[in-house]
UniProtKB/TrEMBL annotation:
Organism, scientific name: Nakamurella endophytica
Domain of life: Bacteria
Molecular functions per Gene Ontology: N-acylglucosamine-6-phosphate 2-epimerase activity
A Pfam family that the UniProt record links to this protein: NanE
The enzyme's E.C. designation: 5.1.3.9
Upper classification of the organism: Bacteria, Bacillati, Actinomycetota, Actinomycetes, Nakamurellales
Gene name as annotated: nanE
Protein name: N-acylglucosamine-6-phosphate 2-epimerase
UniProt family annotation: Belongs to the NanE family.
Keyword tags: Carbohydrate metabolism, Isomerase
Length: 232
């Protein structure tokens, strides 16, 4: 059974916290990951700015597959953007390396490498690669570059998709599934409810990643607090 087989049909929980967030602590994120697995998560996505130590902490804490990433630099391409960041995620023990695959697939990255270079490095280390894309063209290019899985993670977060949808980009799922019937398709980005998760599988997703709505306690609290404040 491949690592992607272990994720198929289940829920992946993203345990990340940005710099300055109260939960930004490797041990805390590892505890969150364990709690998510206790609740039925079949995989954990984790990492962040300088996030390799968080990936390692989560890897030690759970038995399910880990999708790891780092967020580096302030450019348009920031999710595991370089060969060095791929090596950091590999060394941290992630079975799947998430890499941003937005824009032209052959575009040079901050270190001059291409998407195919990153895929080659991860594959030589025995890891699968998840491409974080924002459009159908990017999904097709990522599959062509050898990525093992394609996720809609970046839909709504690139300059060219910023105004496209407010919620989860279900139409992108449908389009990718139609164009790439064999690809391992990950629904990710603004999946906030169990109904959203069901909808993603209906559109052909193989797995769904939920982050903020499960693991960002501040975000969840703000919704309840707003309801309390708006009561009278
Ligand atoms: C765009 C970007 O950088 N997304 C990041 C990717 O790892 C994370 O900040 C998201 O939390 C993650 O994709 C899960 O999505 P959501 O938190 O919406 O369930």
């Amino acid at each position: 059974m491949t690592v992607l087989d272990r994720l198929a049909g289940g829920l992946v929980v993203s345990c990340q916290a940005p710099a300055g967030h109260a939960l930004r602590d490797g041990a805390v994120l590892a505890r969150l990951a364990r709690a998510a697995v206790d609740g039925g998560a079949v995989g954990i996505r984790c990492g962040g700015v300088g996030g390799a130590p968080d990936v390692a902490a989560v890897r030690r804490a759970v038995r399910v597959p880990v999708i790891g990433l780092t967020k580096d630099g302030d450019g348009d391409v920031y999710i595991t953007p370089t060969l060095r960041s791929v090596a950091a995620v590999v060394d941290a023990g992630a079975e799947v390396v998430a890499v941003q695959a937005t824009g032209p697939a052959d575009a040079a990255r901050p270190d001059g490498s291409t998407l195919a270079d990153l895929v080659g490095a991860a594959h030589r280390a025995g890891r699968a690669v998840m491409a974080d894309v924002s459009t159908l063209d990017e999904a097709v290019a990522a599959a062509g570059a050898g990525c093992d899985a394609v996720g809609t993670t970046m839909a709504g977060y690139t300059r060219w998709t910023r105004d496209r949808v407010r919620g989860p980009d279900l139409d992108l799922l449908t389009a990718v599934r139609a164009a790439l019937p064999q690809v391992f398709l990950v629904a990710e980005g603004r999946y906030h409810t169990p109904d959203d998760v069901r909808a993603a599988f209906d559109r052909g997703a193989d797995t769904v990643v939920v982050g903020t709505a499960i693991t960002d306690v501040s975000w969840v609290t703000a919704r309840f607090a707003a309801a309390a404040a708006g009561r009278g």
